[in-house]
């Protein structure tokens, strides 16, 4: 008689599944709460009957016993293994059904104590799963209730073949690896471990996507499980999100989170095409939109205040991919929903959710992990020129340095009155980035200031003088800084150095 060991925390569907196993001639053994539930519905033995040893330590030790693990792990075609289990009177266990203590669920609960969290670290479950998965040539392991129906069907039809058992083993190892990674992340975060000698990250499949960056690339969205204050968002309208939508949406949101005042960021291909702040969200939107109406066609708008009727009417007038905001006025939402394909995203906690402490980037042979760029420029900011910026210029300089943080390096932005007038980005030469910013802001140079994500040389100062720019902000840090400061003083240009660099590669 075949034997199935059943030990599950999530008991959805387990009774019906076990009835199906019983009909197929399986002997059932089980543990704890699973046994208590099943014995009312189906004939089942308790594990302690098999091991002749009780559950102890408040259930911490139940299945950690040689009779259990030998019954799972012995190789059926190995005569020596067969002889050993026969001599010891150990029965084979041919099917293991297990899912684990809800460490993830408890992790998401508010006010959970360390003791409660630790008690939800499963020990016996992962051991059984790994044992069954290792011995997949002889044992079928089931870790997902969604597989119960197919398992029964295959057992009825005699299709519990080696390839299927191997695929279920692979799924089981993915499950335990994810579970262990989640626990590892919990302790790393709890203890503020900055550079662990081994790094495991826990993600869970959210949705499969139609394709990746390009139609020939397969892609999927995986949800980050361990987050202290995760983003909460919902799609209210429009087509399903694409790979590029996800990346653009993330960048637009993290850009707009730089500002506490009403702010709007319009992006295209992960780069800002217009940024504005204002006394109200309508003013901020108008400033962002005016920066580059042409480039914002087919782009994304992120707002840190509710979308108004005025904004919705403008957005309705041209093609765009996504609008994301903490809320929508009722009339504004009705207007936007007239655009069949426009993806409308609401994120109620846009202002309060926590951006990651670390960022990850793939490189040759591995990944790079670094702190998120959340430096406060005001801590090190210094006016280094003879001429001091006016109060208005200083406000725009600070705004500009936040804006240029969003730009691909080498980057520069021309700003005035809390709005980007021109953006130059992703250039291999700094003067080209400055030229781009000045060119895009042609005719609006009077009273504008310039921000750069990296230090200047004299050729940049010459461009500022040529175009009538009277104030600039940049990190400094070059051996040419004295020359740059002297030239700014000669031309009467106010120069602020932040001593903080904001490259975005």
TrEMBL record:
The entry's keywords: Hydrolase, Multifunctional enzyme, Purine biosynthesis, Transferase
Associated pathway: Purine metabolism; IMP biosynthesis via de novo pathway; IMP from 5-formamido-1-(5-phospho-D-ribosyl)imidazole-4-carboxamide: step 1/1; Purine metabolism; IMP biosynthesis via de novo pathway; 5-formamido-1-(5-phospho-D-ribosyl)imidazole-4-carboxamide from 5-amino-1-(5-phospho-D-ribosyl)imidazole-4-carboxamide (10-formyl THF route): step 1/1
Keyword field contains Hydrolase: yes
Reaction equation(s) it catalyzes: IMP + H2O = 5-formamido-1-(5-phospho-D-ribosyl)imidazole-4-carboxamide; (6R)-10-formyltetrahydrofolate + 5-amino-1-(5-phospho-beta-D-ribosyl)imidazole-4-carboxamide = 5-formamido-1-(5-phospho-D-ribosyl)imidazole-4-carboxamide + (6S)-5,6,7,8-tetrahydrofolate
Gene Ontology biological process terms from the UniProt entry: 'de novo' IMP biosynthetic process
Domain MGS-like: 1-143
Single GO cellular component term: cytosol
SUPFAM superfamilies documented for this protein: Cytidine deaminase-like, Methylglyoxal synthase-like
Record carries keyword Transferase: yes
EC number: 2.1.2.3, 3.5.4.10
InterPro entries (UniProt xref): AICAR_Tfase_dup_dom_sf, Cytidine_deaminase-like, MGS-like_dom, MGS-like_dom_sf, PurH-like
GO MF: IMP cyclohydrolase activity; phosphoribosylaminoimidazolecarboxamide formyltransferase activity
Superkingdom classification of source: Bacteria
Family, as annotated: Belongs to the PurH family.
NCBIfam families with a match to the protein in the record: PRK00881.1 (NF002049), purH (TIGR00355)
Protein name: Bifunctional purine biosynthesis protein PurH
Organism for this UniProt entry: Oribacterium parvum ACB1
Gene that this polypeptide is encoded by: purH
